[in-house]
Amino acid sequence: DREGGLLKRPAVKSLLALVMFAARPSSRNFAADLARSPLVGMSDNEIQAFLGSARRGEDLFDRLVDNAPTDGVAVMAQRWQQHARRGRILEMLEETIDYSDLLLTYPRLTDRQEAEQFVTLITSILREVGGDSIVLAQRLATLIEIASDKLDTENSSPPGAVRLMTIHGAKGCQARVVFVAGMFRASHGNVNQEVR
Fold this sequence. Notes:
The chain is an all-alpha fold.
Protein backbone atom coordinates (compact mmCIF):
# COMPACT_ATOMS: atom_id res chain seq x y z
CA ASP A 1 0.00 0.00 0.00
CA ARG A 2 1.89 3.05 1.22
CA GLU A 3 5.36 3.26 2.71
CA GLY A 4 4.36 2.05 6.17
CA GLY A 5 3.02 3.70 9.28
CA LEU A 6 3.60 7.29 10.34
CA LEU A 7 7.13 6.74 11.67
CA LYS A 8 8.20 5.18 8.36
CA ARG A 9 6.98 8.01 6.14
CA PRO A 10 9.85 9.89 4.42
CA ALA A 11 9.27 13.39 5.83
CA VAL A 12 8.63 12.00 9.30
CA LYS A 13 11.81 9.90 9.20
CA SER A 14 13.81 13.10 8.73
CA LEU A 15 12.10 14.77 11.67
CA LEU A 16 12.54 11.63 13.74
CA ALA A 17 16.29 11.69 13.01
CA LEU A 18 16.39 15.30 14.24
CA VAL A 19 14.55 14.49 17.48
CA MET A 20 16.78 11.50 18.21
CA PHE A 21 19.95 13.55 17.57
CA ALA A 22 18.67 16.46 19.69
CA ALA A 23 18.10 14.05 22.58
CA ARG A 24 21.54 12.46 22.23
CA PRO A 25 23.85 14.93 20.45
CA SER A 26 26.94 12.82 21.15
CA SER A 27 25.55 9.79 19.28
CA ARG A 28 27.41 9.17 16.02
CA ASN A 29 24.54 7.00 14.74
CA PHE A 30 21.90 9.68 15.30
CA ALA A 31 24.27 12.33 13.90
CA ALA A 32 24.81 10.25 10.74
CA ASP A 33 21.06 9.65 10.33
CA LEU A 34 20.39 13.38 10.52
CA ALA A 35 23.33 14.26 8.26
CA ARG A 36 22.12 11.79 5.62
CA SER A 37 18.53 13.11 5.76
CA PRO A 38 17.22 15.84 3.43
CA LEU A 39 17.35 18.26 6.38
CA VAL A 40 21.15 18.33 6.09
CA GLY A 41 21.84 16.45 2.85
CA MET A 42 25.45 15.40 3.37
CA SER A 43 27.17 12.95 1.06
CA ASP A 44 29.06 9.96 2.46
CA ASN A 45 32.36 11.86 2.13
CA GLU A 46 30.91 14.86 3.96
CA ILE A 47 29.58 12.59 6.73
CA GLN A 48 33.06 11.05 7.05
CA ALA A 49 34.58 14.54 7.40
CA PHE A 50 31.87 15.49 9.91
CA LEU A 51 32.24 12.44 12.16
CA GLY A 52 35.70 11.09 11.31
CA SER A 53 37.73 12.94 13.94
CA ALA A 54 35.00 13.44 16.51
CA ARG A 55 35.96 12.52 20.07
CA ARG A 56 33.91 10.00 22.01
CA GLY A 57 31.15 11.80 23.94
CA GLU A 58 31.62 15.07 22.05
CA ASP A 59 28.55 17.24 21.44
CA LEU A 60 28.29 16.86 17.66
CA PHE A 61 26.07 19.91 17.11
CA ASP A 62 29.14 22.17 16.92
CA ARG A 63 30.74 19.86 14.36
CA LEU A 64 27.47 19.80 12.37
CA VAL A 65 27.47 23.60 12.22
CA ASP A 66 31.14 23.67 11.15
CA ASN A 67 30.70 20.91 8.53
CA ALA A 68 27.28 21.90 7.18
CA PRO A 69 27.11 21.63 3.37
CA THR A 70 25.51 25.09 3.01
CA ASP A 71 25.21 28.29 5.01
CA GLY A 72 21.46 27.73 5.32
CA VAL A 73 21.98 24.31 6.89
CA ALA A 74 24.59 25.79 9.24
CA VAL A 75 22.11 28.42 10.45
CA MET A 76 19.41 25.76 10.83
CA ALA A 77 21.82 23.54 12.81
CA GLN A 78 22.62 26.43 15.15
CA ARG A 79 18.90 26.92 15.77
CA TRP A 80 18.46 23.17 16.41
CA GLN A 81 21.30 23.27 18.90
CA GLN A 82 19.78 26.23 20.76
CA HIS A 83 16.37 24.56 20.92
CA ALA A 84 17.83 21.20 21.97
CA ARG A 85 19.90 22.74 24.78
CA ARG A 86 16.82 24.51 26.12
CA GLY A 87 14.62 21.41 25.78
CA ARG A 88 12.36 23.09 23.22
CA ILE A 89 11.78 20.09 20.98
CA LEU A 90 8.37 21.25 19.71
CA GLU A 91 9.69 24.66 18.72
CA MET A 92 12.61 22.95 16.97
CA LEU A 93 10.24 20.73 14.97
CA GLU A 94 7.86 23.55 14.04
CA GLU A 95 10.72 25.78 12.93
CA THR A 96 12.18 22.92 10.89
CA ILE A 97 8.88 22.28 9.13
CA ASP A 98 8.43 25.97 8.39
CA TYR A 99 11.97 27.02 7.44
CA SER A 100 14.02 24.02 6.29
CA ASP A 101 14.03 22.39 2.86
CA LEU A 102 12.02 19.43 4.18
CA LEU A 103 8.80 20.37 2.41
CA LEU A 104 10.69 21.24 -0.76
CA THR A 105 12.01 17.69 -0.75
CA TYR A 106 8.61 16.26 0.19
CA PRO A 107 6.16 18.78 -1.33
CA ARG A 108 2.87 16.88 -1.24
CA LEU A 109 0.06 17.97 1.05
CA THR A 110 0.16 14.52 2.64
CA ASP A 111 3.83 15.06 3.56
CA ARG A 112 2.92 18.23 5.48
CA GLN A 113 -0.02 16.50 7.13
CA GLU A 114 2.20 13.61 8.21
CA ALA A 115 4.82 16.02 9.58
CA GLU A 116 2.10 17.78 11.57
CA GLN A 117 0.80 14.42 12.84
CA PHE A 118 4.33 13.63 14.01
CA VAL A 119 4.45 16.93 15.92
CA THR A 120 1.11 16.02 17.53
CA LEU A 121 2.55 12.63 18.53
CA ILE A 122 5.64 14.30 20.01
CA THR A 123 3.43 16.77 21.90
CA SER A 124 1.50 13.89 23.42
CA ILE A 125 4.62 11.97 24.43
CA LEU A 126 6.28 15.08 25.87
CA ARG A 127 3.21 15.68 28.06
CA GLU A 128 3.53 12.14 29.38
CA VAL A 129 7.27 12.32 30.07
CA GLY A 130 7.38 15.85 31.44
CA GLY A 131 9.31 17.35 28.54
CA ASP A 132 12.44 15.18 28.94
CA SER A 133 14.00 14.74 25.48
CA ILE A 134 16.00 11.63 26.44
CA VAL A 135 12.89 9.86 27.70
CA LEU A 136 11.10 11.07 24.55
CA ALA A 137 13.82 9.43 22.42
CA GLN A 138 13.47 6.20 24.40
CA ARG A 139 9.69 6.19 23.88
CA LEU A 140 10.14 6.81 20.17
CA ALA A 141 12.67 3.97 19.93
CA THR A 142 10.16 1.68 21.64
CA LEU A 143 7.40 2.80 19.27
CA ILE A 144 9.63 2.15 16.27
CA GLU A 145 10.48 -1.30 17.56
CA ILE A 146 7.00 -2.52 18.48
CA ALA A 147 4.38 -0.37 16.79
CA SER A 148 5.73 1.73 13.93
CA ASP A 149 3.44 0.03 11.37
CA LYS A 150 0.44 0.42 13.65
CA LEU A 151 0.65 4.22 13.76
CA ASP A 152 -1.49 5.06 10.77
CA THR A 153 -1.42 8.36 8.98
CA GLU A 154 -4.56 10.43 8.64
CA ASN A 155 -4.49 12.34 5.38
CA SER A 156 -7.33 14.27 3.92
CA SER A 157 -7.61 15.75 0.45
CA PRO A 158 -8.52 19.39 0.06
CA PRO A 159 -12.08 20.03 -1.14
CA GLY A 160 -12.47 19.55 -4.88
CA ALA A 161 -9.22 17.60 -5.27
CA VAL A 162 -9.01 14.86 -7.88
CA ARG A 163 -8.38 11.52 -6.19
CA LEU A 164 -6.53 8.81 -8.07
CA MET A 165 -7.09 5.27 -6.86
CA THR A 166 -7.40 1.70 -7.96
CA ILE A 167 -10.82 0.16 -8.55
CA HIS A 168 -10.26 -1.88 -5.41
CA GLY A 169 -9.37 1.23 -3.40
CA ALA A 170 -12.41 3.10 -4.71
CA LYS A 171 -14.84 0.43 -3.58
CA GLY A 172 -17.52 2.08 -1.45
CA CYS A 173 -16.56 5.65 -2.40
CA GLN A 174 -19.07 8.00 -3.95
CA ALA A 175 -18.41 10.76 -6.45
CA ARG A 176 -20.45 12.76 -8.96
CA VAL A 177 -17.98 11.97 -11.77
CA VAL A 178 -15.81 8.89 -12.14
CA PHE A 179 -13.28 8.16 -14.90
CA VAL A 180 -12.12 4.59 -15.33
CA ALA A 181 -9.01 4.41 -17.48
CA GLY A 182 -8.10 1.33 -19.50
CA MET A 183 -11.33 -0.50 -18.76
CA PHE A 184 -11.67 -1.90 -22.28
CA ARG A 185 -8.04 -2.61 -23.16
CA ALA A 186 -7.21 -5.80 -24.98
CA SER A 187 -5.74 -7.23 -21.78
CA HIS A 188 -9.26 -7.39 -20.33
CA GLY A 189 -10.09 -10.21 -22.75
CA ASN A 190 -13.59 -10.96 -21.47
CA VAL A 191 -15.10 -7.82 -23.02
CA ASN A 192 -15.88 -8.35 -26.68
CA GLN A 193 -16.02 -5.74 -29.43
CA GLU A 194 -19.84 -5.64 -29.61
CA VAL A 195 -20.25 -4.70 -25.97
CA ARG A 196 -17.82 -1.79 -26.35
